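Hypothesis: this fold can be encoded by more than one sequence.
Test: take the structure tokens below, design a sequence, compare later.
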């Protein structure tokens, strides 16, 4: 039986939004994020990272740095609350018109939000039901991704979320729910899984 999932953006949702993070130690969890993820873990809900990470395509650092940032993220989640991400997907590609310039990474990709590639790949690999899943992000493209994939979309006003709602970042979007941060979004998320996780 296919199971639902919670897909999570990274910057501005799990860790503080600090642009393209050059130093590993600058990746720091936002307050109560680990507790929020642990509460989903404890209910058996599949938690999956789904993040655009174009820093390598822009030439800011290499792919190994993105992997190291992901490892640090997982370590911090575990150290703070025994929390974990069950799946990790990120798009390292960026088209040349958007600023991609590194050979092999400067290209269009079906994985780049708001395209659905990351979520489709996760669903195929882990047996997930996207129609019963939730995507949490701080940008309009996160909500667009959710709706393109048939998920519900939660916009958190941490990160760029407040600017999205004010109309000063990206474009207008219509999330299924708005919350101040991931921790505040968890009660609403859990309501969506009542049938799946009685």
């Amino acid at each position: 039986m296919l199971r639902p999932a919670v897909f999570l953006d990274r910057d501005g949702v799990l860790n503080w939004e600090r642009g393209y993070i050059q130093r590993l130690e600058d990746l720091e969890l936002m307050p109560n994020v680990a507790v929020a993820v642990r509460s989903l873990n404890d209910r058996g809900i599949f938690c999956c990272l789904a993040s655009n990470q174009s820093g390598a395509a822009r030439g800011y650092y290499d792919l190994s740095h993105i992997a190291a940032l992901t490892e640090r993220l997982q370590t911090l989640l575990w150290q703070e609350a025994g929390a974990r991400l069950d799946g990790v997907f990120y798009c390292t590609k960026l088209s040349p018109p958007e600023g991609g310039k590194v050979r092999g990474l400067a290209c269009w990709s079906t994985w780049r939000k708001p395209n659905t590639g990351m979520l489709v790949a996760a669903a195929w690999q882990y047996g997930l039901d996207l129609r019963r899943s939730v995507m949490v992000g701080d940008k309009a493209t996160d909500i667009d991704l959710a709706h393109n994939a048939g998920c519900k979309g939660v916009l958190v006003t941490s990160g760029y979320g407040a600017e999205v709602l004010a109309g000063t970042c990206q474009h207008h979007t219509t999330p299924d729910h708005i919350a101040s941060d991931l921790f505040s979004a968890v009660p609403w998320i859990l309501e969506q899984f009542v049938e799946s996780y009685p």
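The mean pLDDT is 95. Strands lie at 5-8, 46-52, 87-91, 134-137, 152-156, 177-179.
Hypothesis status: open.
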